[in-house]
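FAQ: What does a multi-protein file look like?

Like this. Sequence, then tokens, then the next protein.
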Amino acid sequence: MNAKPPHDISTLDWRPWQRRPRTTATKPDAPDASQDHLQRVGTVFVCIMLTVLTFYNVCKPLNSISSRHHQRTELVEPAAHAIIRRCANIRAVFGPPTSSHDRDSSDRFELGTRPTLIKNATLWTGARNGTEVVYGDIFLDKGLIRRIGDIPDILYTEKDTYVVDAHGAWVTPGLIDLHTNLGLMSAPITAGALDYSSSHGPISPWLRTIDGFNTHDVAFRLAVAGGVTSAQIVPGSGNVIGGQAFMVKLRKTSERTPSSMLIEPPYVLNDSIPDSNLPFRWRYLLQACGESVRAYGNRMDTVWALRSAYTEARQLYDAQNAFCTAAEAGSWMNISRQSFPEDLRWEALVDVLRGRVKVSVQCSEAVDLDAMVRLSEEFKFPIAALLDAHEAYIMPEALKRSYGDIPVIVLSTNGARAKRETYRGSEFSPRILADHGFLIAMKSDQPQHDSRRLLFEAQQAHYFGLPPHLALSSVTSVPAGAAGLLHRIGVLREGADADVVIWDSHPLQLGATPRKVFIDGILQVGNDTDHIVIGPGKTAPGWRQPPKVPNFDAERKATFNSEGLPPLESNKTIGGRVLFRNVQEVFLRQSSQSVGVATHLEGNVGVTHVVVDRGRVTCVGPACEGEGRNAEAVMDLQGGALAPGMMTFGSSLGIEEIESEPSTGDGPQFDPLRANVPDIVGDAGGLMRVDDTLLFGTRNALLAHRAGVTYATTSFVKSPLFLRDKIMGGLSTTFRTGAPHALERTAIIKQVTALHVSVERAPPSSYVPQTASLSAQIATLRHLLLGGEDPRTQTGEWFKKAAEGTIPLVVEVSSADIMATLIRLKSEVEEKRGTYMRMVFSRATEAHLLADEIAHAGIGVIMTPPRQFPWSWADRRMYVSHSLISCAALTAHTFMPMLSLAGPPLTNGTALSKLLSHGVTVGLGTWDAGHVRATRFDIGWAVLESNNWINKRQAYELVSTNFEKLLDLEGWIGDFGDLVAYEGGSALDFTSKPVAIVSPARELVEIL
């Protein structure tokens, strides 16, 4: 850094030189004796003062230092010392607290907490750039890590110590989420709990997230269940300067207040005039730019707003410095009518200029990142972290020119392409930036992505090339360092806070699950009496090591050279014979009903070969190598797999290129419950067909294709974060994700797949001013299904088909109560019309509460997304209130609700496994088009979360043949469905990557 930030200061306001004004009496008509006496006294006083001044001028050259001392001590005592101390503090150089490792106990220690010994552990400490691993024990006491290594019995046997035998398991520091809105958009999200952005102007550095932080956010417990123990709570990115952020621990304390969850809160939290004798503590601030702040103007407006704000702050900064310069020089008369310059509106930005604030900047595109570099250079302040910096990898050297230390780059792997400014974002960005010397932190951006998935972001970064030690550092030591808290969190070292996670496998393995989570030495997750089964089937040595990931050097180079837009089309196609050698797993479609296992040779790599001729499998087995001698291509899968091409459902794939860019999509749809559909449309319901607006060749679709997701079914229903979509979801289409255009043979699998509607309560947002009531939605649905519209119209025709069961009716619904109503409505329609409806619930967050009833009614379920979350009130019963833990048991629990069927480590079961166990046909979808390519990881995770109750065959069916059953696609794909060849390992983990698509319908093999 070019300038070292000083210690914290007080902001005392001293005015000792302002004398109390004399009272002015009314002038009398004539002088009296008392007035004459005062005049004589005044004359004598003037003479004395003249004598003193004459003596002063004679002696001044000999005693100037002494006179300045008297001027200080006599004219301004006792305030002078306070002013001088305050001014010295604003110029002081500071660093981490020197005594942080000498603490006897943590400031967050809860009385009654037992010491904890974790023995026989594999400790990833975070030291030596994340490469240090210690085999031994770790002792936690009074909220601190007291000892690491070989710990003598005497340290814990004399105390009531809780002893945990890790049996060699990996132990890491608690994970840290550097970019989250936890507590500001608290789950379940309601209009009264949306406190993430202000609508009162672009510049608001005086706002503080702690003032809107909701301690009842259910997401805290979910995040802790994912190993996340600390987080930076940032304001929303809708403002250019959204306000001050705060670092918190996700443990609700016995005090049950937001303030008690803070980590080293700044002293200005409770007093705008802090004690200047206290040690320094960091403050945090969020700035944003680009598309997020469009409500306040364009990019030029944004930068001007920032420059204007910092100019105001710099004027106050300069005024404070000038005031202190005069005070330190003893020029008290020059500032006799002044107080210390301060303004609460700008004091946070003044602290930025003094280097006291960790500034996070949320910008994505090169134009914005470059502007922030210029801003930091102009006003001489360092940027601690660049959030969502998706184009940082395109311009790494330019970012190094920012003032001070190189900023940490904070990313998510699947966060790109939702906006135009993130369109060039790449999964290879973390590795490219690491190669250029940048520190990388992965983040959730809750609630965009569930904070519980934070480790999954690091796992994916490793999969795409980030070395293991840097991937683990990206969610531990790097974010801790960016927050200036590395002396407390993000590492395992003696004297650090006792935030510790014990994992069931190596943390970078897919599905790695915490066995136990400690915050401040207090057990949060993994109480022995809960009897949660974690990690069965993970006893093999391979689970103790980071996964051996594929090589993506060529793809990474192409991405960098093309500035994020490498070609995604296949390298070539082969219409003849192809031999796949060294295949470990082969999963074939036995029929249109299921996926069969032709051969499944776990741990027996290199003995099976597969021959494909004109896109069809003709031979499977060790003897097939001879049949493939005349093959046009031979591909060594190196212990890889052949598995069915997967299908995705629920996202906007195929109808828009960029989610937040209207010009790349179909445009607004009619909602007949808000306004009448224009007569020229000729249909009262405004029912539209997706195949009329299909887009091919979008980057999300091509990336999905290259990731083994070869089919997509798309409707007009969206599942946005804050608002329910219109009731009419249109007629969906099933298409091939890799097709170049709609006229290619087999590009469109089925033009009209299903009829879609959305039925929900009002959204927790003011973005939809006129939303129809739930009762109106049900009444409309009943009217349409019972023949209320002319069957010659589109609405009448397709609702008649849905009522008769000739087309599936897919209902987007979350609430179990609404599902119950729909089950009764289905029965009513079937009874009155004498038909059988094919109804499917999508999204279906609370479906597990009615698993038996749904199965009995013959209704299918599409869980969207696979790992669900209580986004809204309609999703709230993903969790149920648990009896509050008694105060005596506080050291082992928090006062947060227990979640139902959230999966390990919170519950033994999952919503998915419960539905399957009741015989419900289930598909797994996603509403995030950018996440589609991770579908195979989602189902691999689902297998592991079910404690292997779900096998691989069932897992593949969740994204292939089950969809064919649910959406009446049987016979449309069937035996002619695609297969995907994976090199290096199973399709359901991080060891493999897709290298070819085997397409019987097209009679070819596509080499990726």
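And here is the next protein:
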Amino acid sequence: MWLDEADGFAEIFKGYLPYYLLVALPIFIIMSPVNPVAASHEFSVYRMQQYDLHTVPHGCRSASFNLEGRSLTSWSTSRHCVVARIQDITIEQFLEIRSKAGALLLVLPQNSTLLTPEEKEHIQLLEMAMTQQELNAPVYFAKWTPEFEDILRDLQHSFITDDRSGTALEAMMNTVSSNGYQIVVSASAPQKLDSKPVTLHGKLVGRSGSGQTIVIVAHYDSSGLVPELSLGADSNASGAVAVLELARVFSRLYGAAATRAAPDLLFVLTSAGHHLNYFAAKKWLEEQLDSTDASLLQDVSFVMCLDSLASSPSMTMHVSKPPKPEGAAHSFKSRLGVPINHKKINLADELLAWQHERFSIRRMTAFTLSSLQSHKSPGRSTVLDVWSEQSARLAADNIAAIARALASHIYNLTDEINHEDRQMYDEVLSVDEASVKHWFNYLSSQPRAAQIITTTAPNAGVTGALERALSRYMDVTVSVHAVDKREPEYTLYSPTSAVLYVYSVKPAVFDLILTLAIVAYLTVVYFAIQVFPRFYDEYAKIFTGKAKVQ
């Protein structure tokens, strides 16, 4: 009985088994434990800065790519996109990637406040190195996510190179068994943006007939390696907040004739700041000084520029020319009690060091107050410049010190002033810490790169919010500056962000080996089917003593 059933099983092998295999193999492949959702990911990424300054290109010049992802230790050709944490890549590695790799994708820290001082300094120096020259390869940045962490871990443990493998066989097996990633960014080609920087200014009028004006200036935009991630809490949200708070404080004093001081106070907020050579400040000065009616800046006592006030409790007065001992600027400096850093203007440099140099060039007494001791500080242009409780408190303390020193100067307060008058001024000059923190948090919670704020309407976004805030204390004039399209001083480019797709794939060698394995498997099955009837005949002879009759 059982031999008859075996005969039927043998007949299947003779005629129909190959057809069953053709059906069964795809079914087995489809039923294999592969999750299609886990095989692809979609992320928002942010492109590196791209702009031209005096026709000199800066930043990344490409936007799209479709390349195989590799780690810092396994990439080798221009067909690879290097994926790494920003704190892991060295300047030497970046220089090699810039000249040889196809693209670079850097993942930002999960929490920048947890970085060590050494890690922060390393990231800031890397950012400075990346902005030195233009890059032809696309460079993108991504915020940390658990999915990105898994991808980074896979890339670090995959594609183990020969020097990390014990034997050649181990290296080959690691290459075949590893999981790879195809990284794709489909972005439009870089296009020039129509940039129109805006300057806001308003005046508190002093006692009639005095004629002198004190100018208080800050640029409210931020500069950084990544426009969409340039929050610029210290540089220069703190300076813009200082202008708003000083306007609020002195508007209370100037609101009554009895407490109004002699000089006019002119408050100015500019855009297109540090990395664009203070273009808006330059254009605004040209409009005010080269026009037939130049009364706004007719008799300037001094210009006080505010920049980066939230990184240290101590401030430095940066000047292009030391103030004269009998001058107003020296009087203010003595009352504030800050050291002086003297640096001459070098017009041969591509960029001016501080904003006050724009005013010094026009023969005005000007200086910059800053918590930074040097204009070369990497903290002026970094993605790590974000809001914190400590920076908000430092900003409020420094603004209060500036307000007291300015009031002491314009009212000529001395140590001999009676206690009641001093207490009255201290109450009026008190800084509203809640207001400072609110505006500091608002400005540093959104990107303020020139690509973003100079391409929107003057009454929209950050510019519109600052105009409405300053309008509470004085009449505000909005000046929109145009960039000469024939000989532009600077040119901005888009896109600033894109969508990145990551597909989990096997390496090409895996497809080759898998094909060979399938061919070998089918060959073995084929010959097994062909030999099985003969084997069955021999098996039947042993158990029945005679050959099976066909």
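Q: Is there any per-entry metadata?
A: Some entries carry free-text notes. For the entry above: The chain has 16 helices and 19 strands.
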